[in-house]
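Postdoc handover notes: sequence design on the structure in folder B. Input tokens:
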């Protein structure tokens, strides 16, 4: 913890007090939450960024979209549009935000919408000619004006909420007791071979109640990189010099998966909007070498036309074990609450 964060400790206490009062008022019904008569699943975290929400949402889309009409609803962080927007063929990352636009491009059989007002966003989705049967709320754990039917809380293996503190001293948006709202807690970005002993240690540290389930996942990197017309195996390009580019919260695992000692790694802030100056500097540094970025960055960069030899590396969330139990819990919630 740096010195400035320590100095701001009194503000963290104040912020924690304010958020706890807000949660108390919602818990007691003094502040009103809106619920909806369809399955609504909220995915989020207690901390600021970097827990793997996008791969988790994509996992749920794959699990549900073959049998149900699925919609995702996000805030659309750093988008240049306002209000409710339903993705269509005219949409791009600037209109939707990078993550919703990624959902729209990868999953053409679902509806993708953005609205900072989640209650209004759900209402608008349900007013469409084709109504969703399930709505996935992206990064909406603290959005208590909507009462979801099911909450999935994410926490990163190397940055557990139990070890963190309130903003601005730590990275928590609300106190650790906020985890009590979760039906399922997913510890993300674990080692693939996470031991049973370490899993038990984390369970004890998080102090979940008996009704809550916990699962452990790891980031599963693809074995190939892609662009519009080409696929190249990772083992073919690992040894060659390249430029690795990331504008995500925690890029180190991405770099570690691909890099060799001759590679250049460029890091930008999460959700960064790349300027023409940025693009020129990136291309100048890359020269004729391949530029490999994350899938989230690729949706913002691919239409610029400024970067030659641009590729992306897909990722997905995979379970250390007990994937079938997780799937069964989600599917049971949907079956119990869906209206055909």
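Designed sequence:
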């Amino acid at each position: 913890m740096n010195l400035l964060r320590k100095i701001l400790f009194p503000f963290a206490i104040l912020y924690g007090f304010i958020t706890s009062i807000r949660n108390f008022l919602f818990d007691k019904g003094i502040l009103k939450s809106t619920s909806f008569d369809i399955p609504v699943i909220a995915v989020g975290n207690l901390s600021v960024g970097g827990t793997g929400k996008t791969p988790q949402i994509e996992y749920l889309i794959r699990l549900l979209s073959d049998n149900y009409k699925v919609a995702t609803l996000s805030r659309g962080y750093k988008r240049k549009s306002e209000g409710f927007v339903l993705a269509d063929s005219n949409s791009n990352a600037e209109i939707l935000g990078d993550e919703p636009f990624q959902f729209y491009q990868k999953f053409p059989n679902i509806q993708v919408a953005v609205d900072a007002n989640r209650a209004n966003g759900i209402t608008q989705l349900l007013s469409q000619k084709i109504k969703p049967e399930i709505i996935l709320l992206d990064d909406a754990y603290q959005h208590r004006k909507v009462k979801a039917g099911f909450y999935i809380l994410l926490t990163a293996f190397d940055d557990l909420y139990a070890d963190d503190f309130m903003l601005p001293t730590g990275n928590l948006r609300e106190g650790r007791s906020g985890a009590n709202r979760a039906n399922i807690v997913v510890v993300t970005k674990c080692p693939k071979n996470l031991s049973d002993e370490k899993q038990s240690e984390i369970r004890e540290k998080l102090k979940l109640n008996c009704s809550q389930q916990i699962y452990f996942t790891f980031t599963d990197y693809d074995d190939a990189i892609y662009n519009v017309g080409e696929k190249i195996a990772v083992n073919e390009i690992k040894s060659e010099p390249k430029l690795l580019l990331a504008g995500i919260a925690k890029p180190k695992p991405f770099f570690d998966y691909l890099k060799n000692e001759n590679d250049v790694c460029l890091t930008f802030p999460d959700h960064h909007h790349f300027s023409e100056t940025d693009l020129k500097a990136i291309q100048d540094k890359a020269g004729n070498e391949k530029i490999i970025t994350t899938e989230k960055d690729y949706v913002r960069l691919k239409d610029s036309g400024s970067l030659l030899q641009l590729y992306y590396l897909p990722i997905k969330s995979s379970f250390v074990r007990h994937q079938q139990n997780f799937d069964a819990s989600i599917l049971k919630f949907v079956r119990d609450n869906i209206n055909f």
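Context for whoever picks this up: The mean pLDDT is 94. Don't rerun without checking with the PI first.
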